[in-house]
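User: Can you fold this complex?
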Amino acid sequence: MSYLARRLLTFPLVMLGVSILVFVAIRLVPGDAITAMLGTEAGLLTPAQRAALSAYFGIDKPILVQYWSWLLGVLQGDLGISVIHGKPALTIILERFPLTLQLALMSMCVALLVGLPAGVFAATRNEKISDLAVRIFAMIGQSTPNFVVGLLIIYALSAGFGILPAMGEFTPFLTDPLRNLGQMILPAITLGFAFAASVTRISRSAMLDVLSDDYVRTARSKGVPKRSVIWRHALPNALIPVVTLSGVEFGYLLGGAVLVEQIYALPGLGRLVLEAILQRDYALVQGCVLFIAFNFMVVNLLVDLAYVTLDPRIRLGEGN
Amino acid sequence: MGRHLSTKLLSSLALAVAIGATAIASPASAASLKMAWKQDATGLDPHKQTAFSSIRLLELIYEPLVRLDKDLQIVPAVAASWEFAADAKQLTFKLNPNAKFQDGKPVTAADVKASFERLLDEKTAAAARANFLSIASIETPDQATVVFKLSQPDAPLLTAMASINAAIVPAAEIAAGTIGTKALGTGPFKLDKWEPNSKETLSANKDWAGGKIAIDGIDISVLPDETAILAALRTKQVDFALINDPLVATLVPKETSLVLNRTPVLAYHVLQMNPSRKPMDVLAVRQAISCAIDRKDVLDTASVGEGKVTGPLTMPGYTSDASALFCYKQDIAKAKKLMAEAGFANGFTATVIAANGEPATAAAEAQVLQSQLAEIGVKLNIKMMELNVYVDAWLKGDFDMAVALNGGRADPYSMYNRYWTKTGNLQKVTNYIDDTLDSLMQKGRVETDPAKRKVIFADFEKHLVEVAPWAWLYTSYSYTAQQKNVQGFVPTPEGSLFGLSKVTLQ
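Assistant: Here's the predicted assembly.
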């Protein structure tokens, strides 16, 4: 059986495991949809009122029964209805996903466009002042939490220049590209900043390894121009760890970037999950987590396939 | 090099244009008020929703029979006038003949009756039902008159009816089962669009019986970070905003283009002790804790002095001079003496629970209390919890002590009967029964003379502070911030945004 087919077959199993975990975990946390809605006022409810609310939220039946009926729905493409939004969970997730996808893509672009050249540059100037400068910059980038970067950007722009990206709602790219980019570019930079630092560090060390390889020395001694050695011979081989890192990071980003979405008030997947958890909107939490897990697996699969393209020596699924 | 520079210039220019364009892209569109808040409503059923964040929205859409003004006086809403019978066992309302639902249908006595019957029906699961249990029957002699017959005298009932939890909804919508999915009230604004946790669009209700509304509507954005709200105000992206965090609020007046509204609220910050757990079951221990606390210091440190030290009664008309209450001046010597008398000269260890960010000052309050109580040998371990987890523990009474911000009411009986009467719904939380407190509460419930009620509740407050099941700390402010061109907003001690119906944009 081909590698791809086998990987695809494991998808349902992993999804089943994830569904059980999230279903149980969200119900194990103290507090339920009733206390989430009413807060301390929930104490005023009579037992009959509590029962009526439990039935309304669908938490009155034994957990196994709840799980089974939810699972049957999921198999038919129905992730359940969000009680807060009053809409199918899947509809809400798909409404929020374009923003998250765009933010993930844009911040990846920022990270790779800054990180790769910086890493390569530093590697070629190993142990020189400019290498040190890049490394210090990367260290700062990696150790600064992104909400700090975001808050600083917002403060500097609003206090210094009196401008701020539109907050609160998302304008899709196709509706108004200029407004969309104006909204997304700062969050993308904020998110991409730390990731650019990781890319810089990884690509630098990978490049250093590759640059000391025999074939690079051979290429040089044959008189291949330096630029060509670096970009055509060395870089593709140094890309494997960068691809691994980017794949994992991209998978994470598709799960939403909670802090950055909070600060820039972007209605993305991260905030959706957070609010669903805080409000104990079970169907929405379960739906989101399943969706995120699915994306993560797809991205991982694509990363594996990318290895083969980058390095034809790698054969997936044939032992070693 | 030259090429590099120009690419760089070009890209920074593009960035500036893109951001600038979006900043300008939203023109000062007609005259809708652009508003921001941190926390969105969690639902649209006015009878069921109890969270501040929901009530703030629903108050713009729905109306109760009566409402409270800025001085907490009862003023007309759907009802034009009302009258208590001499024995306080019957309450009659005359409806405002101009009152209409937002679909143009007039409000009738049948709508009022159906609304209260829905509220009282246990299947509705309205937490506010507890305030209306004295209603025995509702009569509608004509289209514009509603008579509530009560099973016992209930002076606080009228104030309880001034809550959005007693909103009047159309009988037809109740029958159709659409309350909560469709917002159809009699209030100043119509809800055109709601995307939970993102935004809502309201338009002015041209037929509102309360008068003409000067703005076209309100566009609300949910901005979950309050420093971002401040930034949005600074750049005029937002005209009006709600602020919760006192630290952010104190930054508003530093911006010359902004105005901060600051109003004392009824909610109170309190250290709840659990008298069902040792050694808080000993009166002297609880009193010692109360005496060891420097309330002003808690207020100054945790809330940058934004608020006022308070006793249990926080509503204007009932508040007393807090400094005259038992041990409201920190007295460590007395506290140590009380501890020694109770056999705890060496102190004890207890855990205090607090909710993360609810209120914003919770963690700081717990820390200040921890250091103050250390002086009498009480070692407090602080346990911070997610709000829902905290509420769960709080409702079960599963704590030694709890830092809490509890909601206030305009009437002392409605505010405290849940805690300090023998039949109070939250006995499990207070774990404290006291005959004097109970009998004073019952007296206050049936007494209709305001002057006599004031005396009754003053006694209640004095006794409650002395027996010290809880240590009341301070009340804070509710804040709204606005651009200078926004005028006419009147804040209330309930933190209501109903004042937006009178706002003009200059």
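Confidence is low (pLDDT under 50) at residues 1-10, 20-30 of chain B. The two ends of chain B are 52 Å apart (CA to CA).
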